[in-house]
Amino acid sequence: MSTQNTFLTEEMRQQVIGLEGEPVTTEIEKGAIVKFAQAIGDDNPFFNDEAAARKGQYRGLVAPPTFLRSVGTSRPEFPFDVPFNNNLDGGSDWEYMEPVRPGDRITAVSRIENMIERAGRMGTMIIQTTVTTYTNQLGQVVATQTSTGIRY
Amino acid sequence: MADQVYWDDVTDEMEIPQMVKNPTTQQLVKYAGASGDYYQIHYDTEFAKGNNLPGVILHGALKNAFLGQYMTDWMGPLGNLKRLACQYRGMDEPGRPIYAKGTVIRKYEQDGQHLVDCNIWLENDEGQRTTPGEATVALPKR
């Protein structure tokens, strides 16, 4: 497969796979959680109403499943230029281990898991798989997000 | 929020009640602000058209959020979301209803948890599945 690639060589792949971005730490604000829940149109009391959420399994407000999209991440630096300017978000695969609560300090680290080249409808595409690990101030991994980015 | 669903009552191939969302351009702006994703294809029509799009389109991550809501609504206050995955296969435009649908594909016990795997997807008003995905939830046992 790699012999037919027009851009990405096996050597380049090996250079980027495993690269990590700088850790980015964000303090989770209650207002940001509520604002996010309102933006997605989710009126679940666990994400909106502290008093109601206190009676639930988490004993307080928690973030909706995709809230961590709003937390800052730092992309790994590439050792070469990628001459494709269009980006598409291909999808996400989340695993959840712990709730995210107001006041948490969440550290996100993104790591390049894989990169391949494909010939698609829009010409050459570079498909990058990135795993972002979100860890709280107690050292617990709260979630991982595997995202697929397409450049063409 | 729906009533509590129990693991005991879930069956293979059981349909999960659908959820309808009616995204608007205003919602896309709110989502841009709340998520920090300010890519102009989600709120600037001219910019979107300049990128060979018919007009502004929904953020993939907003559709991901809709599927998250679909699962957290269904699993109820005692459920736990373990995994949520989706692929953005087709574009969706504001001003058109979008339907979250799903079926149970497997129920099982693992590490003392009562788990259910689901096939889930978003479907547009022409019946096209623009956003297929999968989810795993832990449910309470009676």
What does this structure look like?
Chain A is α+β, with helices and mostly antiparallel strands. Helices cover 18% and strands 36% of the residues of chain A. Chain A has helices spanning 10-16, 30-40, 45-48, 50-54; strands at residues 24-27, 87-96, 105-120, 123-135, 141-151. Chain A has a five-stranded antiparallel sheet, with no helix packed on it. In chain A, a hairpin with a 5-residue loop joins strand 4 (123-135) and strand 5 (141-151). The two termini of chain A are 18 Å apart. Chain B is of the alpha+beta class and 142 residues long. Chain B has a single domain (7-138), classed as Hotdog Thioesterase (Thiol Ester Dehydrase, Chain A, Roll). Chain B contains three helices and five strands. Chain B has a five-stranded antiparallel sheet with strand order 1-3-4-5-2, with helices on one face. In chain B, strand 3 and strand 4 form a beta hairpin. The chains are: A alpha+beta (152), B alpha+beta (142). Chain A binds chain B through residues 32, 35-36, 38-42, 44-46, 56-57, 64-66, 69-70, 72, 86, 88-96, 148, and chain B through 1, 21, 27, 30-31, 33-37, 51, 59-62, 64-66, 68-69, 71-73, 77-78, 80-88, 133. Strand 2 (87-96) of chain A pairs antiparallel with strand 2 of chain B.
